[in-house]
Inverse folding.
């Protein structure tokens, strides 16, 4: 978690306007507030988590990214962050489009379904993968649309979404993803972090 | 009802131009304060009361001898902690607890003003209360807070005085009164005016009081403050002090007895004409209309931080109407937080012991106070 926060924080310029979509209990918001910018908002679907955030004095709105991002004006945030949430939406493509409208830049992090540990479980055990990063069983997972680093990379190129920076994370090891090492990073990383722009 | 109330009061000498076109001056505003204003004068919170509220937010209400109407929220060690904050609440104009209203005695006639009192609006109420803030020499409030009609005043206050509050918390309210809201208010007014003792509003001249009509108005309104589930769980079809139906029109059911009781205690503390005037002010409230149909424009001058709260079972000021306020604020990039609190206590939730509401509100106010003071905005 800490590594992901650090990487996200390093992608953000100081004193900019940030929206954290699916902000959970506000841990990333707090981290960025202490390290980068005071001007940060959150959007979260769970009442309980929204209340936790508000209790900490964080500016959070209860709402659903699929229907409530519309209310923000175009380019009203310098950065919009979607941390490990994309796979849980009914329509991830729609959400990405909304994010790209609301934010000048968008940071998306995805738990990589292409990670070799994940692949091995399906290949050898023949069961849906359950890992530290993807702890749910197939019947109770909130993750409707799992994807791999390569899937997201290809998705961006096919939709003409500019990738400014793509970073792979394995445990605490950080590396850059590029076209030539894509297959390897897709196999050897548990998390992908993308800085994109429409 | 203005009967020898020993309340803090100031006389506003500045003329106040009302929305109806009339002008008032030298009129009283009754208020109460709790806690102490600190030396930096940055801990003042102005609380706005709802339709039948008054200035007695906390502690004992000297008129009713009951707890203040927001005792769950305001007081020592409460979510709005009076050990820390200086809390101000004024009786709205049009009210009957010492502020200028239809039961105020006209000095030239020695009689109550009655329905010669001008029609007032939420805007007028807020402008009058701003005079009190000036009198108390508070340059900038830390927060303006209120539920229901109090929330409408919060919205109007920030629109009118964009740099006078750092934080605004409108709770269970709306930016414009809906047809349903107006319908229920009209029902209440008709009940009062249909009472033969109303005498076109001059009942006090005849030593009368339209208490039957006012009680019916209160009973009808009270139903709208609860939820169907809450009513069913609390009362169901339970009978009142009897084992079987009496085959008559007495209060067989507990819910009937409860409503009759609510009506009867209300008439002892509230003036029928005030009920007419204040419900009218609520019906006239349409903040977006004041800004040519664009609610966002009401807030575009302000840097005030907003926190909007609604309740799941509130069907009088439902979440959708509270969300419209949030949407309007978001569309201009204002600093706004929002949560819908789970509660089956209906619109009244904001007045009652709803722990997740009280905790979220208290924590938010306290952490925001800390952040804002550290940043020295």
């Amino acid at each position: 978690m800490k590594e992901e926060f650090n990487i996200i924080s390093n992608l953000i310029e100081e004193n900019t306007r940030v929206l954290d979509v699916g902000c959970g209990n506000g841990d990333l918001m707090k981290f960025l507030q202490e390290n980068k910018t005071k001007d940060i908002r959150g959007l979260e679907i769970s009442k309980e988590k929204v209340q936790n955030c508000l209790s900490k004095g964080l500016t959070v709105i209860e709402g659903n990214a699929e229907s409530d991002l519309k209310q923000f004006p175009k380019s009203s945030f310098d950065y919009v962050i979607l941390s490990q949430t994309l796979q849980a939406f009914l329509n991830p493509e729609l959400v990405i489009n909304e994010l790209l409208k609301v934010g000048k830049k968008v940071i998306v992090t995805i738990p990589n379904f292409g990670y070799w540990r994940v692949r091995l479980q399906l290949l050898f055990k023949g069961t849906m993968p359950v890992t530290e990063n993807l702890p749910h069983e197939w019947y109770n997972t909130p993750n409707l649309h799992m994807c791999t680093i390569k899937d997201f990379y290809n998705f961006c190129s096919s939709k003409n979404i500019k990738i400014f920076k793509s970073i792979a994370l394995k445990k605490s090891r950080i590396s850059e993803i590029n076209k030539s090492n894509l297959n390897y990073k897709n196999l050897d990383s548990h998390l992908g972090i993308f800085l994109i722009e429409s | 009802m203005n009967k020898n109330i020993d309340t803090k009061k100031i006389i506003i000498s500045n003329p106040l131009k009302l929305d109806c076109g009339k002008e008032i001056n030298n009129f009283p505003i009754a208020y109460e304060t709790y806690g102490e204003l600190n030396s930096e004068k940055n801990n003042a919170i102005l609380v706005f009361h709802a339709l039948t509220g008054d200035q007695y937010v906390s502690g004992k209400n000297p008129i009713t001898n009951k707890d203040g109407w927001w005792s769950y929220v305001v007081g020592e060690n409460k979510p709005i902690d009076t050990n820390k904050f200086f809390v101000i609440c004024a009786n709205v104009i049009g009210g009957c607890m010492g502020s200028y209203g239809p039961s105020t005695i006209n000095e030239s006639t020695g009689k109550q003003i009655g329905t010669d009192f001008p029609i007032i609006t939420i805007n007028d109420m807020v402008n009058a209360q701003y005079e009190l803030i000036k009198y108390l020499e508070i340059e900038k409030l830390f927060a303006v807070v209120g539920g229901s009609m109090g929330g409408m005043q919060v919205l109007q206050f920030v629109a009118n005085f964009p740099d006078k509050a750092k934080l605004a918390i409108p709770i269970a309210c709306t930016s414009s009164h809906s047809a349903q809201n107006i319908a229920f208010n009209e029902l209440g007014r008709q009940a009062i005016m249909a009472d033969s003792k109303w005498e076109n509003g001059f009942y006090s001249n005849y030593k009368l009081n339209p208490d039957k009509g006012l009680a019916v108005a209160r009973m009808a309104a009270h139903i709208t403050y609860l939820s169907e589930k809450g009513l069913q769980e609390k009362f169901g079809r339970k009978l009142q002090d009897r084992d079987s139906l009496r085959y008559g029109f007495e209060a067989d059911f507990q819910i009937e007895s409860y409503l009759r009781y609510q009506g009867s205690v209300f008439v002892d503390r509230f003036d029928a004409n005030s009920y007419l005037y204040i419900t009218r002010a609520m019906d006239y409230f349409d903040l977006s209309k004041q800004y040519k149909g664009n609610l966002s424009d009401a807030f575009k001058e302000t840097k005030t931080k907003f926190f909007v709260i609604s309740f799941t079972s509130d069907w009088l000021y439902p979440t959708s109407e509270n969300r419209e306020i949030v949407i309007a604020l978001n569309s201009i990039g204002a600093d706004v937080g929002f949560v819908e609190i789970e509660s089956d206590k209906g619109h009244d939730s904001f007045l009652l012991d709803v722990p997740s509401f009280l905790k979220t509100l208290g924590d938010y106010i306290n952490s925001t106070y800390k952040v804002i003071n550290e940043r020295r905005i």
User: Anything to note?
Assistant: The CA atoms of residues 107 and 146 of chain A lie 17 Å apart. Helices of chain A lie at 2-11, 27-35, 47-55, 65-68, 92-102, 116-125, 149-158, 182-188.
